[in-house]
Every structure is written in structure tokens, then in C-alpha cells.
Amino acid sequence: MAAVTTKRKISPVEDIDINNGVNLFVDEPPDSEDDDDTTDSDSSEYSGLEDEPDTEDEGDDEEEDDEDDEDEEEDEEDDDAENDEDGEDEDESDVEDSAEEASSHSKPTSQEIVTAGPDVKEGKITQLPDEYEYDSSDEEDIRNTVGNIPMEWYRDYPHLGYDVEGKKLLKPEKGDELDEFLDKMENPDYWRTVSNKLTGQKVLLSKEDVKIIQNMQKFKNPVGSDMYEPWIDFFTNEKMIHPVSNRPETKASFIPSRWEMLKVSQMVHALKMGWMKPTPIRKPDEEDENNFYMLWKDDEEPEITRQYRQYIPAPKVRLPGHAESYNPPEEYLPSEKTVERLKKEIARGKTRTIPQKFSSLRLVPGFKNFIRERFERCLDLYLCPRQRKVRMNVNPDDLIPKLPKPRDLQPFPTTEYLVFKGHKGIIRTISPDPKGQWIASGCDDKTVKIWEVATGRCIKTFNVEAKVKGVAWNPNPSLSIIVVAVETSLIIINPQVGDKLICSKTDLLINSFEDVELPPGPTDKPKVTEWELYEDEEYELGFRLKIKHQREISQVTWHGKGDYFASTMPKGESKSVLIHQLMKRRSQNPFSKPKGLVQCVLFHPIRPFLFVATQRYVRIYNLMKQSLSKKLLSNCQWISSMAVHPGGDNVIIGSYDSKLAWFDLDLSTKPYHTLRHHTKALRSVTYHKRYPLFASASDDLSVIVCHGMVYSDLLQNPLIVPVKVLRGHKAAKGLGVLDCQFHPSQPWIFTAGADGTIRLYT
Amino acid sequence: MKRKRKYESGSATAFITRNQALRKLQLSLKDFRQLCILKGIYPQEPKKLKQATKGSGITRTFYFVKDINYLSHEPLIVKFRQTKRFMKRLTKAIHKKNDDAVARIKASRPKYKLDHIVKERYPSFIDAVRDLDDCLTMCFLFATLPTSFTVKTRSVQLCRRLTVEFQHFVITSQALRKVFISIKGIYYQAEIMGQTITWIVPHKVGYQQPSDIDFKIMRTFVDFYTTLLGFTNFRLYHSLNLHYPPQLQLAGAKDETETKCLKSEATEERLAAMTQTLKAMVTDNIEDADVDEFPVGNPDDPDFIEKAKLESEKLNQFQNLFKGKKFFLNREIPRESITFIIRSFGGEVSWDKSLAVGASYQESDESITHQIVDRPTVEKQFLSRYYIQPQWIFDCVNSQMLIPVEDYFPGVELPPHLSPFVKEKEGDYVPAERKQQMRRQQGIDSGVEEDDGLMEDEDDDDEDEEEAVEEEEDDDDEEEEDEEEDDSDENSDDEEEETPKKSKKDVKKPVKTPKPAKKPKDMAVTPGSVEKVNVNRKVQQQEKEEKRLAEMMIPKKKKRLYETIVKSQTRRDTKIQQLKDKRKVINRRNKLSKAGGE
Q: Which residue in A568, A631, B101, B285 could disulfide with A555, CB within 3.0 to 4.6 Å?
């Protein structure tokens, strides 16, 4: 019900056009004159605002009307009285104004009494019915119903708009310039007279209005300075006799709560049954503090409940070295490059720290990863399996087997002594003569050369029709014969070097036996080979016999006595191994069907055995009994070469998978020792005839000479000691050293390489 | 006879996978982990993996079946189950917004104690002492952590209390042996009951808690460690006849300084300051305790007894390294660690009263012998005391003697701080500073006191320079030595050869040269030069070759081992060589710069 009127005070100002050429601040006249005018202002303010006089509070009135007349004060006393006065007001005030517009308003306000005075005084302004009286900012202005439109639209019309009833609102008569001027001159209140655009009326601003406008322009509180109203302590802390509200209590409040009753009865029951107990009073000291006591009273007594398993204590964390110091010696500081590397490692979580130097302790920053490191330690403690590990403290020298020193095992070849140059291709094979004076070599350039060992000069060259795969000098010192394997044929050559007597004797021998051979020939089985004689020029050169085979020959070897020799044809299938007899000019095929791809064959130096190396096994055949006597398992992938000890009980095998296997035939069929000295395929292995030496040549350009002592005592195993690694050959076409042969009497070794040289090491 | 079946004995039955264990114990993985941490049970690696996996060969985490059976009797499991139930009740109450119930349930949180586990895991006290390393490091770390959701205030406070107590014990028993400032933190090594215990204390800086770390695991560890440390402290205190909740000897003497905190807090703070000695239960008979001790090892051998006596004397001297010295700490110094060190070697410490609780005397005290400063300049200097940088304390302890203070004056470039934990083996790289340190120690042993004389003299600039020069010379000598060592392989041989060569030439030249002069012919015979036979090198080469040949004969089984050993050796050697080279370069540079400076 309480209506607040203070707000409405401002409303008229809003509607008024202030920019009427009036300077509100400069031209303000002295206060003394204004006494009356101010009262006028009230009239303008409150005109027509209050529809219901009941609404007004006393307080409001007090605020507003500081300078009001006594009449007004009377008004304040009683509401009813006001109403009466209102009636009077109407009478007193303008008779004219109500004529047209008052009809819309049922009850004029009390303030209108005040306005009457000045209005009467200044007839000019109140000539027209004062519609302003009915103004109400809260509601739509009912005096003019055009609404919120620019008023210029009515500029050319005689009216301004329409009232509630739809009648035209005529513009108030406006004097000419002269009237205006006179008004300006005569009227002391001209400066605060403004016109209402909507109604065209002139409105006189009261002193308070002016004050409000001024305040607003100064951004002050428009109402004035009275911001501190008296505090009314409505809800006081003091006890009051009367209730704040007079509302009677509800009926429900007098009825006992059913839910409460249920709950209480439950609790009572719980108490009775002993379910509910009084909450124990907590003693903070007892619960929060850990009470420590003597846990280990007597250490000496062994614990009966000792854990069943052995407790492995966690390994302790590694202790820091100098590098982790905050001020390490300078050499421990990493260079820039390493710092970058370390940073990368840190990013990967591999390391945690970079050694750094700080000039003073106060500059040392916190270690960023401290917590993480602790966390990882925790993880290690409970997630890592623990094991006792015996740390092997092995001196690496102890691992090297104790062997006699090579120095004590001399003689053996140590230095390169001679290089035999002259061949223009890969030298595949060499063979020294039984006295050690000459050496024959077979090469891919289709030549066989005879060299003098002592000088390194090439004495003779035999040109053959194809690449030479094998050369073998007859081991019988009383003969001078070389067998050369050229493609599918064996050529027997008398080199005609050295003792002439021997040469001529050899020729004699060859020729004499030829005659004996011929008659029984045709009666035999079909020949496996054809023996041909060289004649004339070729005979003069030294070529003697040619044995034609069906397949390509890969290797040729003599029997120790110099009468028999064997040739190998890996692709010969049933005729892969042939044994020839020189004196009888006869060839025979010992095996009807060889087992596997034959790599090479060798005669036993003493007994009638034949060693046949296939791809992975070596088979030893007894030639007399014509039976297999032994099979050696080499453990190699592919055997390349083989050599038999002059004693006949030991065999070495070289393989393409860079292994050298020593077989002791008395021990077992498995290798007694496997040496992996070379890094590439072995091409050739050989024994020395007199000295306890053997050698292996490999594609890795090295020739390794080993001491291989075989004892006559059967209980003592052979002693194998590598004594020298010989180098010197160069690589050519992916091949290294292809053949190696010992000198028959001296501790020298000849090696033939793919680079077209033969080297002699002494 | 019963037929033996596959996977019915041996590894197949001795091991159990983690998931099987969980099922057997009816625990969640979280609880199982916690239990494993508390009980100290770790997984095992079966030797026969195939058997243990029953043929499948899939690697898993294995535990001993016996371990798991042992866990199943643990009373903690019941507590874990109760906790689970409790959490359920609590969350239910919270979600129902039943505040009364929440309060009531919270009050009944199941609590467990770990006392019995400590006793179980460490049946004798020495076992517990041996395992203190991780425990101490962890507690020291947690004592510095800020409290958060994961780190509870209570455990932080407890850790702080326990670590302070432990430090007090170390001070009182003078057990500290080695200290080291590393980038990571400060390492301490103490000898307690014959066990060396090493722990790290992080530098006192705020540490960011990494987000990807599971603090629950750490917390479980800390729970156990605090219990362990508490009981250990109790026992250790009793072994020294001290009151266990430690009490200060001068309790209540000065209370004016701390008025703004609670009384309990004030005493705790003063305890943590570590400047005062603890109150003993029995005061008198501690002093004469170790006089009558005789070494038990070999009583017949008089030398042994002598040696042992010397050792104990030395130790006693070392333990009272700072006795009679009065230190004053300036600001910006790791107060706690330095106080701890000085006090454990018998010194007295104080600091500015406004800095922290526990200051016993002020800067103006004339009896102060050393003032520790970590700034290049000191404003107000007293003549009666040395001003030194904090590293001096650490280096003194590590070299077990008072070393000259000149190198440690404020503003002076500090000598490198070396790790005391490095034990140089033969062939290892030894920094020059370490050599100097060892020489100093030996000097004291043999009675030669050059350095001491210098130290006790007044610190004149001239003498400083002299010393500096001496040191430089030392360095040079070493350098030369190094060089010689390095070059010996290469140069010395040549030199040796050259000398006989020359002499031979000298002998032969006069004989030979006139000959061609007398007989100038068409076929000139040039004087043959003697073949340079480098005997040493040849011998070396031969030896090398022999070794190479012998290496070839190593059987395949041992070859791998041999190769790894050789590899590691060469790696070590290259590292040492690198360090040596670097040092050489540095020495040369320093020399140059010094020469330039002069």
C-alpha cells in the first residue's frame, strides 16, 4: 500500500525540454525572491500525480515539504483532512483548467492547493487548461495520446495530438517574437520556464527541480544530500512485548509430531537393547600419536618365528662420484656436445643429472627429479624380483688357455721372403717338387709355370688350352712328372728341370710302360678314360700324356709312392672319383655310386686308404678291402679342403664357413678341435711333411700357421698352438689366398693368391 | 610307485602369478600392493620359466606360493576389508546427506598398527639398522613436502619429528662419518652399530610435486618407514640412556624468544634447532665407557692391539674435530645441515636471534672462532675469527682434519668439492685435489705438519701466494708425471733406441767414411745404414701378437665372457684417458691465464 513518491518528483523534469535557451546555473536569481515560487514548483511537481491520497506517508511529506506553508503542515496531520482540503483546492485553483481536462481525473492531489497561488498570479502561463496537472510519469501520458513520437510531425498542424476522448489537442497560442521578448524582459522566472513538448504548455521549474537538475549535471545525488536517513531498528535484539507479526500460530503446531515420536521410540528401543551407545570421548593424544616402545628387547635370542625364506635385503643405492658434486673438479664437467647428448638422454629418462659447477652453495637449485627418483626407488623395492648374484671377478688373462709360447715352438715361417710374380690371373693351385727346388703353379691365365724356389724366377711356362684347376708334382724324387688338371683332362708333363738324368729316366719310364699297356686294354670293360700321347712339338715342350675325362676335373692328387694318382670330378656322379695308374696307363672307378658331392680326395700316406670328402662328411675307404672304414662328421656346412698328417692318423678339414676341424682318427669320428681363427671361408689346409706344422689359407687374406704336434704316445692328445698369422696377399675378385703348400724339407710356406702372386714365407 | 606327472612339483607349484594370488587372497590389486609394500614381499623370477608357466611360456609376475600363504595369515587383511566396508558406509551416508551418520561413521574409521610387521621383518635390531637407508631418505623427503590432498599433515609432522630425533641421536653418538653436497641433495653417511647408513636430504627448496607420480605408494612406504624409524629411534635413544621423547638439557631456560607459538610447538622448534644437547637419564658413567675396551680380534698380536689403539685414537680425534670451535652462521646458509654436521663433531653453533629459534649466542660474541658466510663480501668483520664459506665444513669432515681456511675465505674461488664415497682402485683416475687431500692426511700421520703450520700462521697475502705457487708446482709435477706415463709407451722406446744408434754411428762413421773417399769408382758403394731395430717395440709387438694368437685359442664358452670383460676394460680406460686429457688441457689453460695475469 505504501507508495513512494520521491521517485515521481523527477518525472516532470524528464519530459521537459531543458534546452530552451535557459541557463540554469548562471542566471539563478537570489533566494529571497523565490520563497513564493518554490511553493509554485510544488504545484507543478505534484500536479495530478496522486490518484489516491491515502497512499502518502507522513515521512514522505516531511521530506518533501521543507518550506511548505502551515496549511500543508495541517494536511500532514490527517489523511482524511487532506481529502477535504482537496476539495477546497479544486475550488480555489483554476476554474478554467478543470473545464476541459480535469474530467479525466477523479481526484486531484493535495499539492494543488499550493499551486493555486502562483497560477493565479501569472495568468499568462495558466491561460490554457493546465494539462500538466494530470501528468503522471508512471503511466502513459493521458493528456496526449500520440505516444512516443517525434513531435515535429505535428509542426505544421494546429493541433498537437489527441486526448483520451479523441479530440484534437490544440497548440497553445504562442505569442510572436515581441511577446517573447517582453516576457523575457518582464518575467523574472523566464529562465526557469520550459515548455512541455507533448502538450505545448509552459512549465515553471520549481527551485527544487532546478536543484535536482544541477545535481544531476554535477553527477551528484539528484535528491539532495540527505542520504543518511534515521535507522529504524525493526527487528531489534531487545525483547518486545508484541509479536512482529500478529499471525496466529497454525493448528499443526499444536499437534505432536508423529515422525518425531517414531524416531524417539526407535532410539529408546535401541538404547534399551544396547544397540546405541554413548559416543566415546576421543583422546587425541592416544590415537594420533604413535606410541613407540621397546620393540627389540632382547636381540640375542633368535626369533622362533624367523621367516622361512632367506630375506634378501634390497641392494643399496649407488653412491655418488665426484661428477655429482655441486662443485666438481673441472675435468668432470661435460663439454657442450656431451651436454646436448645428456639432455637428450634426460628427455628419454636414461639419466637424471648433468654435472654442473656452482660457485657457491647458495646458488645450488633444488634437484627437480628428487621425488621422482625416490618414487622409482620405491617401485624398485616392491616390484623388482631380487636375486643373489655372485659377481664374477675374473681376470681376463685367466681365461686365456695356458699354451707354450710360439717362440718356443720355432721353427715356423715368420716373414715374407719372396714374391713370385708373372701370372696374370688367379693362381688356383701350387705344388712344390719333392726336393724343394722347384715349384709349379697353375693359373687362370691358362698357363702352368715352373719357378725356382731359391731365386723366384720362372723357369718354364706351359700353355694349356683352359684354366688350370690342379697341379700336382709327383712325390717320388726319382721322377720329374707334374699332373695338371685342365678342364676335362689331366695332362702329364715332364717339366725337364733339374737333374737331366732323372728327366730322361722319367721319359724312358713313361714310354716303356706304354708298350706293355696296350695289348690287354680292349679286352677289359669299357674305359672310363682315354689316354693319349703327345707327339712332336708338344712332346719337345714336355707334354707327355693326356687323360681325357668326361667331366670337369676339380682336383688331382698323387699317392705317396708316385705311381697312382686320383682325380676328382664333383659333377661326375658315378664317376666322380677316378684312380689312375701311371705305369700301366690305366684308370679305374672305385665307387659305383658316391655319396654326396665329392669335394676332394686324398691318399693315406702309408696305408691303402682313400679319404673322400663330400660336402659335410669325410669317408675313409679301405682300398684293399674295398669297404668303408670310417665316416668323419665334420660339423661344417661345406668342406672346402682337406689334409692328412704324414703319420696318417690325423686329418684337418677346412670349410667354407671359416672353420678348421682337426680329427684324431684314433679318438673319434668327431672333431678333436675346431678352430675358428679365420673370418672368411677357408680355401686350403695343409700339413708340413717333417715339422709339426699345419697351415690354413683363407679368403680373409691371411694364412695362419699353427703348431700341431702329434705325439707317438697314444694317451697324449695332439697339441695345437697358433704360432703365426701371415699376411701379404691382396684381395681380387672377392677371393683371397687360394692355396698354401709347405716346403717339403724346410719350414717354409708357399701361398698362392687371387692377386696373381705366389709368396714364400720363411 | 606313484607315477610322476608333469607340472606337479618343482617350479610349477612353487610359483603363483599375481592374478592367482589376488584371487586367493580375495584382495583388490590396490590392497595387495599395499600389503606387499608393508610386508616387504617382492616378486620372484623363476629359474625355469617354462615350468613355472606350465608350458605356456608367457612371462608374468610371479610370487612364491609360500609368500602368498604367509600373507594370507596377515591380520592387516581383515583391517583392509573393514576399511573397504567403512568406505562404503561412509559414501552412502555422504550421498544421503545424513550428516549425523557421517560424523558417527567417520569416528569409527578402522585403524591399524604396523608394529608387528616391523618386528616380523626385522627380527633383530641390527637388521632394522641395516635397512635404514631408504627409510631415512624417504622420511627426510616427506618432512620437507608441503601438505596436500595426497600428503597428509600428520605424516609430514611425524616425519619431521622422527628425523629430528634421529639427527639428535647421531649428534649425541657422534656417528657421522662422511658428508657430501651433490646436485641432488646432501648425502650423509653415519656409522651406527657397525653399519654404514647413507641418506640423502634434499636441498631446502620448494619442490614441485610431479603429477604423474602415485603418491599412494609413497605414502604406504612412509607409513611403514615412520613406524620403523620411531621404534629404531626409541631403541637407539635407550642405548645411549637418553629420554626417548627427547628432552633438552636446558629445558625452559630461555623462553622469551618464542612467545607467539604454542608451548609444544616452541619446544619442538627448539629441539629441531639442534643447538642444545639432550637430557640423559643417567648422567655420570658415559664418559668412561670406552676406555677399557680391548680389541677382540687377535689379542696375542701386539701389533694388532697397537694398531687398533691407534685407530680408535684417530677415530676419537675425528669425532671431536670441531671441539672447542664456536661457529656462527650467517643467513643464506643451509642452517640445519651445517648445524647437524658441526654439532656431531663437537662444535658449537649459533645464528642471528631473529633468524630462527635456538640461537644460543650472538654475532658479537668474541669467542666465536669461525663465521660461515656464503656471500663474497662481509660488511662487518671481527678480527678474532675466520670468515669461511660453508664448503669448508664439509671438506674438513671428508678429509678428517681441519684443513687450511685460506682457500675458503669469502669471495675466493672454492677448490672442488670431492665425493668421499669414491674408493680409488688401481688404475682409476684420481683428481689432483684428491691426491692433495691424501697427501695431507698422510702428512699428519707421519708427523710432518707443513700445512698446519701454514694454517696457523696469520693469513698474509704473501703466504697465500706462496702456497698457491706451491700448489701450482704440485700440479705441474703431476702433469709431467702424467705426460711421462702417457708418452712412455711411445717416446721412451724411440729415445732408447736412438742412443745406441748414435753411439754405433759414432763408432762406425770414422771407420767407414774414409773408405769411399779413398776409392772413388764407378760402382759406388754407399755406406749402408744400420737397420733401425726397435727392440722394445719389437718385443711389445711380439707380445701383442702372442696375446692375439693366444686369444684365438680361448674356447667358445669363455669367449663371450672374455670379450665383455675386455670391452668394459677398454671403455673404462678410455674414460680415464679422457679425464686425464681434459685435466691436462685445463692445467695448461690455467697456467697460461696465470702467466698472462702476471
A: A568
**If you compute the radius of gyration of chain B from its CA atoms, what whole number of angstroms results?**
34
Mean pLDDT computed over B116-138: 90
CB of B319 closer than 8 Å to CB of B399? no
pLDDT of residue A268: 94
Contact status of B526 with chain A (Cβ, < 8 Å): no
Q: Which residues of B touch A293 (CB under 8 A)?
A: 231, 234
Average the pLDDT over A83-92 and give the result.
41
Cell output for A36: 513564493
pLDDT of residue A309: 54
Tell me: the pLDDT tens digits for A55-71?
334 444 444 444 444 44
CA–CA gap between residue B406 and residue B386 (Å, rounded):
9
Sheet strand arrangement including A737-742: A416-421, A757-761, A749-753, A737-742
B532 φ, ψ (degrees, to nearest 5): -75, 110
Handedness of CA B76, B79, B84, B90 (dihedral sign): negative
Confidence of residue B515 (pLDDT cuts 50, 70, 90): very low
- Mean pLDDT for chain A? 77
Which residues lie closer than 8 Å to A475 by C-beta, 6 or more apart?
A434, A558, A559, A560, A561, A562
How sure is the predictor about A537, in pLDDT bands with cuts at 50, 70 and 90? confident
Among A622, A615, A565, CA closest to A591: A622
Per-residue cell: A625 = 678291402
Q: Give contacts of A307 with chain B, Cβ < 8 Å.
A: 70, 120, 123
Asked whether the beta carbons of A588 and A575 are under 8 A apart, the reply is no
DSSP state of B489: I
Inter-chain contact A309–B64, Cβ cutoff 8 Å?
Answer: yes
> Alpha helix (H) ranges present in B240-275?
263-273
For residue A504, pLDDT beyond 50: yes
Q: Is A25 on the interface with B (CB under 8 A)?
A: no
**Grid coordinates 678342364 are at which residue?**
A487
pLDDT score, position B407: 87
Cβ-based neighbours of A318, under 8 Å, separated by 6 or more:
none
Longest dimension (CA), chain A: 185
Angle between helices B391-399 and B335-344 (to 10 degrees): 30
Residues of B in contact with A384 (CB under 8 A): 42-43
Strand order in the sheet with A693-698: A682-687, A693-698, A702-709, A719-727
Residue from B184, B387, B564, B568 to probe the interface with A (highest A Cβ count within 10 Å): B184
Flag whether pLDDT at A22 surpasses 70: no
CA dist., res. B120 & res. B35, Å (int): 14
Residue B107 with chain A: CB contacts under 8 Å:
279, 282
B398 touches chain A (CB under 8 A): no
Among A residues 443-462, those touching chain B with beta carbons less than 8 Å apart = none
A726 neighbourhood in chain B, CB within 8 Å? none
Residue in chain B closest to A707 (alpha carbons) equals B549
B210 has a pLDDT exceeding 80: yes
Query: Please, which pLDDT band fits residue A290 given cuts at 50, 70 and 90?
Result: low
CB B204 within 8 A of CB B163: no
